[in-house]
Amino acid sequence: MKTLILVRHAKSSWEYDVSDKKRPLKKRGKSDAKLVSKRFQQKSITPDFVFSSPANRALTTCRIFSKVLNLNENTLKIEEELYDFGGESVINFIKTIDKKIKLL
Predict the structure, then answer these.
(1) Which of 33, 55, 103, 104 is buried most, with the most CB atoms less than 10 Å from its CB?
(2) pLDDT tens-digit profile of 44-57?
(3) At what angle do helices 27-42 and 56-68 cross, to 10 degrees?
(4) CA-CA distance, 18 to 58, in Å (whole number)?
(5) This prediction's pTM
C-alpha cells in the first residue's frame, strides 16, 4: 500500500526584508523540524521520495528531514506547483503524483 505523508514547513521568520520565497526558518522552526524528523526516524518512516516547493523555508525543512533520515540527495525533488497559497495546485500535484514518480 502506498502512503502519502504531507508535512508543512516549520516555523518561518518574518524579521527579514526578503521575498516570500526567500523567507527563512526561525531558530525554533529548525529545532522543530529536527524534532519531528527524529520522530519519523523512531517510527522507521523512510520516504522513497521527498517533494518540496522552491520556497527557502520548505527546502530547509526538507533538508533537515533528509539529513536526520539519512536520505540520498537524489530523493529530494523540487516542484514549483507546491508553492501554492490556495491549495489547488497542491491538490493537482497529489492527483498526478503516481505519474511523476514513474518519470523519476
Answers:
(1) 33
(2) 999 999 999 999 99
(3) 40
(4) 15
(5) 0.85
